[in-house]
């Protein structure tokens, strides 16, 4: 159950923050309000009258707009076409000729009135994520909404873009519109919200005001006092394990996503890669793992060239890999926990050979790993899809750490994972470092990178802009993530548009 | 500042791929151009190749010495290829490619026609007529696939259309009622496709193939049990009348082809233009494209995704059904078992070759129609080139297109994906 008897009231002209950790049920709640999901019980009142929302049509008619976490824009359409879609202005009666000029005018009008610069004729797929989000907001505003739902709007933004968004939100509430602001970031909530409702495991656990101290909000959100700190000793860097020089990688559209990256990771240290999603991190990791061809450059592990190897060879040579999209690349959902634990070693002793598997050895190993990695499952023979996100991720981590490793690469290791599992996984990553492996952690959560890393590399438009100490002030890291290097006051120009597609948000709601 | 290192942001360059698309295409053109020059040139006789501007050997004509023509036009193709190898502005690419392919085809014709004659009006007319079911079938595909429903059942729709036209046309004694029943036949198949694909989320390619077999079986059975024994009452449909527009019909070559012909030709041309304009300029078109590219986005702005898909698939059924009427109301005077013999698949190939656009698919359908016409011509003049080679052309061309040689072939993003909300 994603939502269990939630009560929430939004007043006109207020920013109402819906605070909760990943998977708490915030998006599920709002998708019901927007008519995408149907509640089993309970009702929504708009201006005091009960309304049912069978589909988004009903919600739009009731003056509700929503900016989804995964943008709902057609990539091959222009901005104006996206804005017009569903509420087209037409001439010529039944023929329904599109009145393009009128849509353009509306887009320009709305974007000027609320300070949301967008070019009506630009193709959405060519726009950076921040601009796509503005398109989404313009789209909602042209439909005369009274209530605007923003679902994790800051997950894909730089700190500076976030500030701009908050300004826009203020100008919206000044003109009398209400906003529901879904987030799990405390700082933003405190900066903008008029009232705060905290949701945990599908229940309202409390309401608060922006004056409530951060640690109190955090405790409400996760249900106990948590420290985001990771307990670790100072690193003992040894020999250079991974070296990347001049790496150039293209994305699926042939655009250069990684544009000349040089990196090195030493044994016994964690290198964290920070950056807003879609700045080449995904392609970088895929190239390292042999999942994507590199156009130029070199990648070596202990002097061995990785670029010519297949993914299997790379894994066998002592590289562990936690992919960023767990359900797509991390586990085979229909397979059991035990099977998922030997996906990489099923054809080697003791688990099997080229011809057959050895079920007894697989089962024994699975029992041991489930124990060691605290994987909460009804049985090692249960399909992995029956596990929670956090436990699925532990299966991936357990599998990758059961080989002797020289290099451990983790992309978004705690995305969509509950707090308890985050702590566990972080602890394991540090343990791997202390046992002498080189560790590369890629995360779009700056907090995670800073907590884990011994050195932080900031990526922007396919480049590593700087490698800095994790103690570097937040503002400076934020500026680097926006492409501003110290000493330069303009964002650096890359050849790659920052992010072509709407990047994945951080949240996976249980259905 | 605690910054350790700051990279300078000069442009990092990697060597551009030498064999880019233009060079690959250029190299291919040079190869086929050389093939034409050497092989066709060597095989062609020195006799004159005569291209007449009429439906027979009479009247004005263009003459060229066979061997000379084969070599000359082969070199045209080589020239176009060389220009692309050297590198030209992208906007010339399509023009050069067309010149190269036309050069190759004409070189081939010079070889084949040497010592004989090729009536141009008859060739153009045949191209258009044979292309009719392909054009209409491909338009059915455009309608369905642009809204996200793969239509592999074009063959079934054509066959059902042909059958319906023959049966009802004969029984009612009216060619127009026949045409309407052809459309109904297409809609019948489309409705089954829509219900299974949209309502029951069955794999669309599988449903399409099953429907093809279903249509083949049903029409085959009824043909053997009903039409064959009582052809008089069930299988002698009236033929579509030829309409001649005075004045315009006198224009050389195009006149007799476009203005002294049957209604289906005009209908097909109108449908192509209509779909093209409507897709880009109307509310229906915008919504159709949105539903084919990103149905969830369409749903969240209040568009009925499934409803629109039903509508488009059924409209496609009407169009393909009318295309099927060509077989029984225009081409031959009666229905025959499996008489479409794969035209629906060629239409599907034209759809892909034309990159899911109405004009592209139209061009591809005409090209394939031309190949079929040429195949008939070659077997008629007793050419040593097996006509089967030309009948293979649509499939070979499509494989080349899908392999990405001719340009990026990109289907609508949600093509073939059933939509479930929530």
Automatic annotation (TrEMBL), chain A:
Residues 1-226, 242-486 form the ABC transporter domain. Residues 483-511 are annotated as: Disordered. It holds the Pfam family ABC_tran. Keywords: ATP-binding, Nucleotide-binding. InterPro entries: AAA+_ATPase, ABC_carbohydrate_import_ATPase, ABC_transporter-like_ATP-bd, ABC_transporter-like_CS, P-loop_NTPase. CDD domains: ABC_Carb_Monos_I, ABC_Carb_Monos_II. SMART domains: AAA. One of its GO terms (molecular function) is ATP hydrolysis activity. This is ABC transporter.
Automatic annotation (TrEMBL), chain B:
Its main location: membrane. It is found in: Cell membrane. It is a multi-pass membrane protein. Keywords: Cell membrane, Membrane, Transmembrane, Transmembrane helix. InterPro entries: ABC_transp_permease. It comes from the Bacteria. The keyword Cell membrane applies. The chain crosses the membrane at residues 25-44, 64-88, 95-114, 126-143, 150-169, 175-198, 205-223, 263-279, 310-331, 343-368, 389-409. It holds the Pfam family BPD_transp_2. GO terms for molecular function: transmembrane transporter activity. GO terms for cellular component: plasma membrane. PANTHER family: GUANOSINE ABC TRANSPORTER PERMEASE PROTEIN NUPQ, SUGAR ABC TRANSPORTER INTEGRAL MEMBRANE PROTEIN-RELATED. This is ABC transporter permease. It comes from Mangrovihabitans endophyticus.
């Amino acid at each position: 159950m994603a939502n269990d008897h939630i009560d929430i009231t939004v007043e006109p002209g207020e920013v109402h923050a819906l605070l909760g950790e990943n998977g708490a049920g915030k998006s599920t709640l709002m998708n019901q309000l927007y008519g995408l999901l149907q509640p089993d019980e309970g009702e929504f009142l708009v201006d005091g009258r009960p309304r049912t929302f069978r589909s988004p049509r009903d919600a739009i008619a009731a003056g509700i707009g929503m900016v989804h976490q995964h943008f709902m824009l057609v990539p091959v359409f222009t901005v104006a076409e996206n804005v017009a879609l569903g509420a087209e202005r037409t001439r010529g009666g039944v023929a329904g000729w599109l009145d393009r000029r009128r849509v353009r005018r509306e887009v320009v009008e709305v974007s000027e009135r609320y300070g949301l610069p967008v070019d009506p004729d630009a193709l959405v797929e060519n726009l950076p994520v921040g601009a796509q989000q503005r398109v989404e907001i313009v789209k909602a505003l042209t439909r005369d909404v009274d209530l605007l739902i923003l679902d994790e709007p800051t997950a894909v933004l730089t700190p500076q873009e976030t500030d701009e968004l908050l300004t826009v939100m203020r100008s919206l509430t000044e003109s009398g519109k209400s906003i529901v602001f879904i987030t799990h970031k405390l700082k933003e909530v405190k900066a903008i919200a008029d009232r705060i409702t905290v949701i945990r495991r599908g229940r309202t656990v409390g309401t608060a005001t922006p004056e409530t101290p951060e640690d109190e909000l955090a405790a409400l959100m996760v249900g106990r006092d948590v420290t985001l700190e990771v307990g670790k000793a100072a690193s003992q860097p040894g020999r250079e394990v991974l070296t990347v020089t001049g790496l150039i990688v293209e994305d699926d559209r042939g655009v250069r996503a990684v544009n000349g990256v040089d990196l090195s990771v030493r044994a016994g240290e964690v290198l964290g890669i920070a950056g807003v999603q879609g700045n080449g991190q995904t392609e970088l990791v895929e190239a390292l793992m042999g999942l994507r061809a590199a156009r130029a450059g070199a990648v070596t592990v202990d002097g061995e060239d990785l670029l010519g190897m297949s993914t299997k060879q790379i894994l066998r040579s002592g590289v562990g890999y936690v992919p960023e999209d767990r359900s797509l690349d991390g586990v085979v959902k229909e397979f059991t926990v035990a099977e998922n634990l030997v996906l990489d070693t099923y054809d080697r002793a003791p688990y099997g050979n080229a011809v057959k598997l050895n079920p007894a050895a697989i089962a024994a190993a699975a029992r041991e790993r489930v124990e060691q990695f605290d994987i909460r499952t009804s049985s090692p023979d249960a399909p992995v899809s029956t596990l929670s996100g956090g436990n699925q991720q532990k299966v991936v981590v357990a599998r990758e750490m059961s080989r002797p490793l020289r290099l451990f690469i983790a992309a978004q290791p705690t995305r969509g994972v509950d707090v308890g599992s985050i702590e566990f996984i972080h602890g394991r990553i540090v343990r791997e470092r202390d046992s002498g492996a080189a560790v590369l952690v890629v995360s779009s959560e700056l907090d995670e990178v800073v907590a884990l890393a011994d050195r932080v590399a900031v990526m922007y438009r396919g480049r590593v802009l700087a490698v800095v100490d994790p103690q570097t002030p937040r503002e400076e890291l934020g500026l680097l993530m926006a492409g501003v290097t110290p000493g330069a006051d303009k964002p650096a120009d890359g050849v790659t548009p920052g992010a072509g597609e709407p990047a994945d948000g951080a949240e996976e709601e249980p259905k | 500042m605690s910054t350790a290192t700051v990279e300078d942001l000069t442009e990092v360059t990697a060597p551009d791929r030498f064999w880019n698309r233009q060079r690959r295409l250029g190299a291919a053109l040079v190869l086929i151009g050389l093939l034409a020059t050497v092989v066709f040139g060597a095989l062609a006789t020195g006799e004159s190749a005569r291209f007449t501007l009429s439906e027979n050997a009479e009247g004005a004509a263009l003459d060229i010495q066979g061997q000379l023509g084969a070599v000359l036009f082969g070199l045209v193709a080589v020239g176009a290829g060389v220009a692309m190898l050297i590198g030209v502005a992208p906007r010339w690419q399509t023009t050069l490619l067309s010149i190269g392919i036309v050069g190759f085809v004409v070189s081939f014709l010079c070889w084949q026609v040497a010592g004989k004659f090729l009536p141009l009006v008859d060739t153009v007319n045949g191209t258009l007529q044979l292309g009719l079911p392909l054009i209409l079938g491909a338009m059915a595909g455009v309608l369905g696939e642009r809204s996200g429903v793969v239509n592999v059942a074009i063959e079934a729709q054509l066959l059902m259309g042909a059958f319906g036209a023959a049966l009802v046309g004969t029984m009612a004694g009216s060619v127009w009622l026949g045409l309407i029943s052809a459309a109904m036949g297409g809609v019948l198949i489309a409705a089954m496709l829509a219900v299974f694909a949209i309502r029951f989320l069955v794999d669309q390619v599988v449903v399409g193939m099953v429907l093809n077999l279903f249509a083949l079986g049903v029409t085959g059975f009824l043909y053997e049990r009903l039409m064959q024994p009582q052809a008089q009452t069930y299988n002698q449909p009236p033929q579509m009348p030829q309409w001649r527009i005075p004045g315009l019909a006198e224009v050389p070559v195009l006149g007799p082809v476009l203005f002294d012909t049957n209604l289906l030709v005009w209908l097909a041309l109108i449908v192509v233009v209509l779909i093209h304009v409507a897709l880009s300029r109307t509310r229906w078109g915008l919504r159709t494209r949105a539903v084919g590219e990103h149905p969830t986005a369409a749903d969240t702005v209040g568009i009925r995704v499934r409803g629109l898909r039903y509508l488009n698939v059924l409209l496609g059924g009407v169009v393909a059904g009318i295309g099927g009427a060509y077989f029984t109301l225009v081409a031959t005077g009666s229905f025959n078992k499996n008489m479409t013999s794969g035209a629906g698949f060629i239409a599907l190939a034209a759809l892909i070759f034309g990159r899911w656009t109405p004009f592209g698919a139209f061009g591809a359908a005409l090209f394939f129609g031309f190949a079929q016409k040429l195949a008939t011509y070659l077997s008629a003049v007793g050419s040593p080139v097996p006509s089967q080679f030309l009948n293979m052309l649509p499939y070979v061309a499509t494989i080349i297109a899908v392999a990405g040689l001719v340009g990026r072939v990109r289907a609508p993003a949600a093509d073939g994906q059933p939509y479930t909300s929530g």
